[in-house]
Amino acid sequence: MKKSDVAPLIDHTTLGPESSEEDVKEVCREAKEYSFASVCIEPIYVRTAKDMLKETDVKVDTVVGFPHGTHKRGAKGFEAQLAIEDGADELDMVVNIPALQRGDYEVVARDIAAVTEAAEGSTKDVLVKVILEMGLLEEEAKRAGCVIAQASGADFVKTSTGFGPSGATVEDVKLMSSVVSDDVGVKAAGGIGDFEAAKEMVEAGATRIGASSGVEIVQGAPEG
Known about the structure:
The protein is an alpha/beta fold.
């Protein structure tokens, strides 16, 4: 796996209450330089990122129901619509974690559908990634979350927000990739700080890597 292989898999990320507009501009500059898949940023910065990246192939990715997933589905759908109107190309939404934990799968499906329907109603292709926060789930709920996400129209399942009890693990990525079809991607995110960690995730089945250390990951990769 070479630099030219790993860079297009990375969602270069700056998220959190302290993330500033200058942080967003910096990840946009780095994303352009390294040709990352996207920048993943807070919703208030979507327009800024879209303007900086308008003449590139780098996508603008933002979050919905972040980081706890306990927003009402109407709020998530509205949040998704606003993000799309601002120019978002991809949406990373947090699943209703308590509903998934207690096995209320109909609620989980409706929650995801609120966002996928907003994406499908757009005049452009908008990808939806469903964050399951795997560190909070038992195996049955992990598998159910993957199945429901796919059935609800998601394009990806994602391991974690980066704010939960654990980040991406090889075991979870393998499980997710074994449950979803080839039409659904797997995004590994949380604690991936260097090339070797990213490589492990890709070998386990990840098709996207979410990381604030995108530059370090690429710089640590073999040339080519």
